[in-house]
Amino acid sequence: MRNFDFAPLHRATVGFDQIADMFDRVLTGDNTHNSYPPYNIEKTADDAYRISIAVAGFSEVDLAVEVKEGALIVSARKAEEDEGRTFLHRGIATRAFERRFQLADHVRVTGAAHFDGMLHIDLVKEIPEALKPRRIAIATGEAVEKDVVEAEAVN
């Protein structure tokens, strides 16, 4: 595994700490590659996305979806209902989990739905008007005159 030194990035940039921290989290070997529960991320439109998570065995009351500090956190805790039941084979995992998705700037969660053993979370990227490109009108013909105050009139 390669080690990357982000010191030059920290010295040459201002305000990009979040990106460097994200790279540090992704590239560290401390993260175990947990594949439970399986999920899909799909692009449903130019500025819309959907995360679908397989949550077989969980009901709506067992699931929690929240946005905190720029991250989407999906967690599940199953209440113990197995008392008095004996399983010969248990292939449906209902163990507790927490899955985090780092959200880009201006991405917000618009809704979540649970059906057919799948949890669907819809997201949309909304760029504020101040950040959208805008066309500046160019005047033609005569130069636009500004309000000019004569020096003599100020006294």
What does this structure look like?
With 155 residues, the protein is α+β, with helices and mostly antiparallel strands. The protein folds into two domains: 33 residues, no CATH class; 121 residues, Sandwich (Immunoglobulin-like). 14% of the residues lie in helices and 32% in strands. The chain has three helices and seven strands; from the N terminus they run H-H-E-E-E-E-E-E-E-H. The strands form two sheets. A four-stranded antiparallel beta sheet has the order 1-2-7-6, with no helix packed on it. A three-stranded antiparallel beta sheet has the order 3-4-5, with no helix packed on it. Strand 1 and strand 2 form a beta hairpin.
